[in-house]
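Handoff note, outgoing to incoming analyst
You'll be picking up this chain. Sequence as last confirmed:
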Amino acid sequence: CGPLEFISRTSETSSPRAGIIVPRYGRTNVERNRLKRRLRALVRSDWLPEARSRGLETDVLVRARPEAYERTLDQLRAAFSSWERAA
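Most recent structure output, in case you need it:
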């Protein structure tokens, strides 16, 4: 889904979980940490509540691609939304 890659599978627990991978891609630690914070915020505020309300028992791994560093929070949210619709 554009700047993000998603891998999902059935959870071994009774609740949804998410993991986030942000490779360096030659970026500074400040840029990397900023992107990780944005992705964690999207998972907490958008994906987890939706997954819980739908009763999903899914583990999701979100991996940032190099172009994710250039995207705004709204663009990352749009990538998340397009993945949710496809899943």
